[in-house]
Amino acid sequence: MAASLARLDDRAIIEISGEGTLAFLQDLITADVEGLQPADAAHGALLTPQGKIMFDFFVLATGGGVLIDCAHEQRDALLQRLMMYKLRLPIGIAARDDLSVAVAWQEKPDDVPDEATCFADPRVASMGWRMIAPAAALDSFSGADAGEYRSARYRIGLADSMEIGSGELFPHEANYDQFGSVNFRKGCYVGQEVVSRMQHRGTARSRIVPVEAQAALPGHGAPVMAGSRQSGKLIAASGHHGLAVIRLDRAAAAVTAGSGLSVDGVAITMHKPDWASWPDPAGDEQGED
Question: What is the pTM of this model?
Answer without folding.
Answer: 0.92
